[in-house]
Automatic annotation (TrEMBL):
One of its GO terms (biological process) is transmembrane transport. One of its GO terms (cellular component) is membrane. Coiled coil: none annotated. It is found in: Membrane. Keywords: Membrane, Repeat, Transmembrane, Transmembrane helix, Transport. It comes from the Eukaryota. Its main location: membrane. SUPFAM superfamilies: Mitochondrial carrier. Belongs to the mitochondrial carrier (TC 2.A.29) family. It holds the Pfam family Mito_carr. This is Mitochondrial carrier protein. It comes from Attheya septentrionalis. Solcar repeats lie at residues 8-100, 118-216. It is a multi-pass membrane protein.
Amino acid sequence: MGNEKKEHHAAAPMVAGILGGAVSTVSLFPLDLIKVRFQANEDPGYRTKGFRRRTMLRTMGQVIRHEGLVGLYQGLAPALIGSAASWGGYFFLYEGMKKEMLHLKHEASPHDETEHKLGALENFGAACSAGAVMVLLTNPVWLIKTRMQLQMKNVMKERERDGLSMKRPYNNMSDAVRTIVREEGPLALYKGAIPALMLVSHGGIQFVAYEFLKNHFGAYTKEVRTQADSDGSKRNNVIERLEDSVGYLTMGAVSKVMASSTTYPLQVIKTRLQQRSETIEISEAGGGRGE
C-alpha cells in the first residue's frame, strides 16, 4: 500500500499539469491565436487594407467576420496535445528532479537535522532541464500549431480570386505533418527549436520567482498565524483558505508576468522561424504543390 501511495503521489503533478494545461489552452486559445498572428505580422491582406495599427479587439473581430468563431480555434488540436504533453511531462520531470536533488543533499549530509531545501539556482536548473527535454519532444507539435493558426481564410479567398493559391496549406494535423515533411523535409519540424530551447528560461524564471514568492508568503502567513495563536485569537479556517488561494493566485500571476516580459522577444523569433516559407507559397501560386 505504501508503494502505491508513493506512485499516486508522484503522478499527481503530472496529472495536475495535464488537466491545468488543457483547461488554460482551451480558455485562452483565441488570445494565443491573436498573439501568434501579431508576432508573425505576415498578412498582406490586413496590411494593404490599412490594418498596420492592429489592436487585439480589431484583429479578433476580423477573424470572426472572415473565418467565423471557429477561426479563433484553428490549431486547437495540436495545442491540446502539445499542452498536455508539455505540462504533464514538465511537472513530472521537474518534481522528480527536485526530489532527486533533495535526496542527494540529504546523502551528502546525513547527520544534518535541519530541513533540506533547494536554492533558487537549483530550482532554476531543475526547471530548465525539464523544459529542455520537453521542447525536444514537442517542438513538431508546436510548429504545426503555429502553422495552422496562421492560415487565414480571407486572404486565401483573395489570392484565389487573383489566380494564386487555391488551397489551404494544411487541412488537419496529420495532413500538416505529411505536407511539411514532403515540402521541407523532416528537419523542418524542428524549425524554431533553438529559440524554443532558449525559452526554457521562461519556465525557469517563472518557477524560481514562484518558489521565491511562495517561500516568503509561507513564512509570513506562518508567522502571522503563530502570533494569533499565542495571542489567543480565534482562527477562521475559511478565511485562511481564502487568503491562501488569493496569495497563490497572485504569486502565479506575478511570476508569469515576470517570465513573459523577460522572454517575449524569443517568442517572436520562434514564431517567425516557424511560419510557412514565402518561397513555398510562391511556388504553389505558380503551379501548385506539384501533384
